[in-house]
Amino acid sequence: MDDRVDWVAGLARVSGSATIGPRDTPTSWRAETADVHRSKTGADARLGSPEQVEFAHGQRRTDDSLVATLSTRAGVLVMPEQEREATLGRIRAFLASGPETAEGEFALPMLTAVLRMRRL
């Protein structure tokens, strides 16, 4: 999800990391992968500089379809029922309150980020 978009960043905050985790948003993903190419054994000397490319796109959603998808995340599935219902309720309330998402179908901004290293 493209958390450079304000409402998506807000959705990530409201949802919590069990629902929208560090691999799900570019901001967190960049922090998580900043040093992934650096080997502790010196093997990184055989790798070139990291290359990162991003591809923006979107998914057509409704509040119901997005909540249904988020409810299938592993972190949500293992929550106690009361916590899961509270989390999904917060998400649904957030989506109902925003001008971008309150009226039927909307575009969920997505950003696919790719990190590649070439062997020297």
Task: Name the structural class.
Answer: alpha+beta
What is the average of the pLDDT values? 87
Q: What spatial form do the alpha-carbon principal axes imply?
A: elongated
Query: What is the number of helical segments per DSSP (H or I, 4+ residues)?
Result: 5
Describe this structure in words.
The protein is an alpha+beta fold. It has one domain. It is 39% helix and 18% strand. It has helices at 6-15, 26-33, 63-70, 74-77, 81-97, and strands at 51-61, 106-116.
Descriptive keywords:
120 residues; alpha+beta; two-stranded antiparallel sheet; 5 helices; elongated
Concise synopsis of the structure shown:
This is SAM-dependent methyltransferase. With 120 residues, this protein is α+β, with helices and mostly antiparallel strands.
Secondary-structure map with pairings?
Elements: H1 6-15, H2 26-33, E1 51-61, H3 63-70, H4 74-77, H5 81-97, E2 106-116
Antiparallel strand pairs: 1-2
Helix pairs in contact: 1-5, 3-5
